[in-house]
């Protein structure tokens, strides 16, 4: 009976010891915040100035699950498609290596934007020109 109880205790301990590892192996997620920056601030809800523009407006957020060497894409409000590819996850210190690219509305090919190495929850940004001298801003954090 004691051996059975001990075996159950060992099994339970090994199960709970494995839980943090499983959580650590979860796919990283890129959280993208999309903002429209403009100098035409007449509409209500204008936010703070951004990158030399008089004001900004939140356009929304997107979450992209990242799998190593698989493109993750999202459509942007201006018709572009934005893509991130997880190239590697580095330990000590923990960092994510990603490649970013975009495709214009109606375009066939993705154009490379940058290769980035980011710490978890560290933000990096992209700016795309928009009609009327405005800009579409992407703020990205991976965790």
How would you describe this protein?
- The protein has 143 residues and is α+β, with helices and mostly antiparallel strands.
- It has one domain.
- It contains one helix and eight strands, in the order αββββββββ.
- The strands form two sheets. It has a four-stranded antiparallel β-sheet with strand order 2-1-8-7, with no helix packed on it. A four-stranded antiparallel β-sheet has the order 3-4-5-6, with no helix packed on it.
- β7 and β8 form a beta hairpin.
- It is globular, with a radius of gyration of 21 Å.
- About 14% of the residues have low confidence.
Care to give the gist of this entry?
This protein has one helix spanning 2-24, and strands at residues 29-38, 55-65, 71-75, 81-90, 95-103, 111-118, 123-129, 135-142. The chain has 143 residues and is an alpha+beta fold.
Strand order of the largest sheet: 2-1-8-7
Uncertain regions spanning at least 5 consecutive residues = 4-23
Overall shape: globular
**Helix coverage percent:** 10-25%
Radius of gyration: 21 Å
How many DSSP-defined strands? 8
* Structural class by SSE content: alpha+beta
Query: First CA to last CA: what distance?
Result: 46 Å
Describe the secondary-structure layout.
Elements: H1 2-24, E1 29-38, E2 55-65, E3 71-75, E4 81-90, E5 95-103, E6 111-118, E7 123-129, E8 135-142
Antiparallel strand pairs: 1-2, 1-8, 3-4, 4-5, 5-6, 7-8
Which tags fit this structure?
48% strand, alpha+beta, single chain, 4-stranded antiparallel sheet, 143 residues, 8 strands
């Amino acid at each position: 009976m004691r051996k059975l109880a001990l075996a159950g205790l060992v099994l339970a301990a090994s199960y709970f010891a494995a839980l943090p590892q499983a959580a650590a192996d979860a796919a990283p997620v890129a959280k993208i915040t999309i903002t429209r920056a403009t100098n035409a601030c007449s509409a209500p809800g204008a936010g703070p100035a951004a990158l030399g523009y008089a004001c900004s407006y939140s356009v929304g957020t997107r979450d992209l699950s990242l799998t190593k060497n698989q493109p993750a894409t999202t459509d942007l409000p201006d018709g572009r498609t934005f893509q991130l590819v997880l190239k590697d996850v580095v330990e000590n210190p923990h960092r994510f290596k990603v490649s970013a690219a975009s495709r214009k509305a109606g375009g066939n090919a993705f154009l490379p934007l940058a290769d980035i190495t980011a710490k978890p929850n560290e933000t990096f940004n992209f700016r795309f020109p928009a009609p009327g001298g405005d800009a579409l801003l992407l703020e990205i954090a991976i965790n």
